[in-house]
Amino acid sequence: MPLRFHWSLSSAGDKFRGAKSRGAQSGVPNQEALLEYCRHAEECGIDSLLTAFGFHRPDPIVLAAAAGMMTRKIKFMVAVRSGIYSPTAFVQQVNTVSAFINGRICLNVVAGHTPKEQRGYGDFLEHDDRYARADEFLHICRAFWQDQGEISFTGKYYKIEKGRLNTPFVSSERSRPEIFVGGNSELAEKLALKHGDCLWRMPDRPDILAPRIKPLLAKGLEVGLLVSIIARPSHNEAVEAASAMIANLGEKPKQTHRQFSQQSDSVAFTSVLQMAETRDSTWLAPYLWTGAVPYLGAPSIALVGSAEEVASAIIEYKRIGISQFLFMGWPDLEEMSFFSSSVLPLVRKKELEEDGPAVWPLSAPSGSQPNGVLG
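and the corresponding structure tokens:
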């Protein structure tokens, strides 16, 4: 199976949104910037765009529906937290969106990362309980997508009695949306194994990741990396761009992310920030850089280097079983363009050399996929 590449929509129209406190960020979508971003991603052959969740953002499923109506090919990866929705109503929403945009919607299930924010949505569960509730939530959702007729369920967190939906999931590829589960904890892994198609986790060196993900891969779960990217024509240009970026951000963002970490109970967010602030070197590997994490947050661990170096790093991750990547960049549109024109062709060439002709052909049209790659 060829590698798949996704991009975060979080910073469309706001290059360093992650450097600001969440309270200072606007939740009003910049419609022109979002539309330009989505259409550019289509041209670059990106598989899907993440619409993230948070009080400082527009609603992710409404955003996906609006953007999906104005695009042709790009998929939308909608972030969902189980404590916010009735599972029946949520499936109804997702299925309705799928009918309008021909199934171009998938899900990124997250348990939440900040108790204070969760309470603002009426969710008072602790970290581990949120995962247990997400288990019940996805069990019910999948029952609806499996078209089991009337759905009844009694659990610790949900009780559904003779639930029925007359709006099915509409897609030419799947009978339900693809489910990604985000997190670095063992609970996230267990949830992904039970209900997911792919686990999103933060990156580390391949030799450290390999034994951690091997049992997951053996059970048929895909594993992907949430990682940023700073790719340039040469190694020195990429490193200079990375250094210049954090130099221009100043010290204020570091205090913002320290405060966020103190409020967060996310294993991924807190552990990555702690690692970035306590290590002697900002380089985990010659191509994996943590220098932006104190300024832009955990997802800013970045692949940094020339097009050849970044492509080789991606293939090195593929060798240990990583099959998908969710990128961010600064600025995203320019980074996406360089990835599409300079990095992606090298990745496809290296895949063909290593795996043979079963890999997605180099001549495939931008954004196309082989039949059944999602099923």
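(Above: one complete record from the training split.) The radius of gyration is 20 Å.
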